[in-house]
Write a structure and sequence with these properties.
- There is one protein chain.
- By secondary structure, this protein is α+β, with helices and mostly antiparallel strands.
- It folds into three domains: about 15-30 and about 65-270 and about 365-415, no CATH class; about 295-330, no CATH class; about 425-489, no CATH class.
- About 40% of the residues lie in helices and about 20% in strands.
- It is built from 14 helices and 14 strands.
- The strands form five sheets. A five-stranded antiparallel beta sheet has the order 4-5-6-7-8. A three-stranded antiparallel beta sheet has the order 3-2-9.
- Helix 1 (about 15-30) crosses helix 8.
- It is flat and about 115 Å long.
- The chain starts with 14 loop residues before the first helix and ends with a helix.
Length: about 500
Amino acid sequence: MATEKDPKSPTTTSFAYDAMAAMWHKVQTVLDGTEAMRAAEQAYLPQHEAETTEAYAERLAKNTLFNLSKITLDSWVGRPFSDPIGFTEVPSKVETVMDDVDLLGNNVHVFARNWFKDGLAKAYSHVLVDFPRIDEEAPRTLADDQDTALRPYWIHISPEQLFFADAEIVDGREVLREIRIMEQVNDRIGFAEVVQPQIRRVFMQQHTDEQTGELVSVGTVELYRLREKKKKDKEEWYKVEEYTFSLDRIPLVTFYADRTDFMEGTSPLEDLVDLNISHWQSTSDQRAILTVARFPMLAVSGGTDDGNKVIIGPYRILYCADPNGKYYYVEHSGAAIDAGRLDLQSLEEQMGEYGAEFLKKRPGDVTATARALDAAEATSSLQDTTLRFQDALNQALYYTALWYKLDSGGQAMLTTDFGPEDVDAAELLTLKDTRKAKDLSRKAYLEELKRRGMLPDDFDIDVDAAQLETEAMNMFGELKLDEGEGEEE
């Protein structure tokens, strides 16, 4: 049964948001590292049965995250952004925005990389192409905006911020009707800086144009703040501002890494994050058992519990009332330590394999979809995702152009040739050692590197050999010249 939603509160979330929120929290917590995982406490490191609160706190404080999820994500993101983004047919007005696309000093390459990274980690992420609000009643022209240096800018909206969205299908196209975004705004109260939550509601309204009689869509923005309340008062949001904007659509672009439905998707990173959490838990158990093993427990046989505290240390005598009694140490066998070590190794191997799997080429000619992706040069999951992001980037350029009343914003081009996705490091080392031992010719060695994608397809081995010979001759000639000059002196 669906959870009942409050129709009167602007904080009411969508069902899609509710379905995705737990995954976002899990992924973001792991990406934030050790301190965030410790702060999450039992959410990702359960307390053992009969474990004291003090013992759990100590175990938690000693644990450290091996953050292969972050390392892998950075590796994935680095590939399509290894070269600067290319642009074609971008209007000059749109091009001027690219050097500081968010009015925070970030150029389009840096901004797009962060947008792509967020969407790849959390299934999707958004950009709102906004325009500074003009507090004037008189109509303005583009010339007025240029004179005051007003221009559109991009705002990165994380999926956690956009907690409600509604869309409808118009002429076969998905059209946004409303979005609600949770923001943080800085206010000043006296000498203090205060950060307050703010809800931005953006929606489309339709009305009939008085002159043409046509149905016209008008964009509207409402801003809500929390009313100051007393301790027992219910939280209350009130509208502080409302204004309209000139576009006939909501200029929000959503990049889906893997879409399953409207505002729902699958994170390519989630399974790896789950493995990372298992590794976090196994690491904690391994450290705990090492603590037990390193400190053997002193036991007594034949003694009596007379209530006296036994103190162990130098200059002390251990006394046992029973002449047949004895003190001895009980030590851990170490079997569980080795089992824990193997478990950690297995998890690390699985995480490494998972990270590489996203880069591997798909088996060729399996389905019609696979053939279509091959035709689009999307031979790996990361390449396919990169092409989807390229489409989202082009949509953001188009919305930027709309603010200038232009028909096109141009095209963006990202790197999709990621090189050797399936290279095996051990095999490369074997090739290198074989060549070093002169059991393999230089030509055969280079041909093998070329076959594995380590050298470009247009690399000419014979031309390269001739260039090496020329370089060697030049070096020899320079040495001869130096020697001749030395003799003349």
